[in-house]
Amino acid sequence: MSEQSIALVTGANKGIGYEIAAGLGGLGWRVGVGARDAERRESAVEKLRAAGVDAFGVPLDVTDDASVADAARLVDERAGRLDALVNNAAVTGGMPQDPTRADPSVVRTAVETNVIGVIRVTNAMLPLLRLSASPRIVNMSSTVGSLTRQTSSADLAVIGPLSVAYAPSKTFLNAVTIQYAKELRDTPILINAACPGFVATDLNGFRGVRTPEQGAAIAIRLATLPDGGPTGAFFDDAGVVPW
Ligand SMILES: NC(=O)c1ccc[n+]([C@@H]2O[C@H](COP(=O)([O-])OP(=O)(O)OC[C@H]3O[C@@H](n4cnc5c(N)ncnc54)[C@H](OP(=O)(O)O)[C@@H]3O)[C@@H](O)[C@H]2O)c1
């Protein structure tokens, strides 16, 4: 087995995903840059390589079965296994999302990408993860998906805008993360949810207060957890986030 650790990051062409790829690359990892758009993918791969990262492009639309199956084949050919999968790709589905005026297609888009996309990619990559001695899965969630925080905080940066699609899609993702952890509890696979904080990216019109590099830190930490580390939990930089 090669010494170099191998990761796949979905939605790695920009924002927090790009910085997760850069951060893991900086630790010496080989990184598959999952991205659906060829031009954006290649420009991210070029930029990462120029920074010294051992990066390779992985065409990947998380909503498309064939694309995800092709991506698993490509990672197998290029790397032969996976040590970490970071399910980072997500969409808001479109705003506004006031529940009483909801467009069902907005909800469907958010769930299709942020939840079903994660299940689709995870299951396709599991055979490659099972070849690793210390496999890790990180699901990029958000504190807006924390029911506890949504109902107990007066902090608008935590509560976020009214959101009948995006925020519940992250609650759904958290619940899915727990189910995976339960099924995989007797394996070396550790799977956790992460919140990057409120980060200035396209997702929020760059209104966030943290940099993408700061947002990437928690995912990098969870992708590099030591054996015996936590699984089935939800973390941000400050520690455990309540469900
Ligand atoms: N920014 C924040 O404050 C914040 C807070 C909490 C959690 N998060 C989470 O952090 C993660 C990264 O968000 P970000 O802020 O970096 O957002 P971003 O800049 O909008 O990046 C999202 C990434 O996901 C990709 N993507 C979307 N749909 C896809 C699909 N169907 N297939 C493949 N890739 C797809 C995008 O690709 P394209 O370029 O092709 O669109 C892009 O690379 C997300 O899971 C988000 O929910 C962000």
From TrEMBL:
<dbReference type="InterPro" id="IPR002347">
    <property type="entry name" value="SDR_fam"/>
</dbReference>
<protein>
    <submittedName>
        <fullName>Dehydrogenase</fullName>
    </submittedName>
</protein>
<keyword id="KW-0521">NADP</keyword>
<comment type="similarity">
    <text>Belongs to the short-chain dehydrogenases/reductases (SDR) family.</text>
</comment>
<dbReference type="InterPro" id="IPR036291">
    <property type="entry name" value="NAD(P)-bd_dom_sf"/>
</dbReference>
<dbReference type="GO" id="GO:0016020">
    <property type="term" value="C:membrane"/>
</dbReference>
<dbReference type="InterPro" id="IPR045313">
    <property type="entry name" value="CBR1-like"/>
</dbReference>
<keyword id="KW-0560">Oxidoreductase</keyword>
<dbReference type="Pfam" id="PF00106">
    <property type="entry name" value="adh_short"/>
</dbReference>
<dbReference type="GO" id="GO:0016616">
    <property type="term" value="F:oxidoreductase activity, acting on the CH-OH group of donors, NAD or NADP as acceptor"/>
</dbReference>
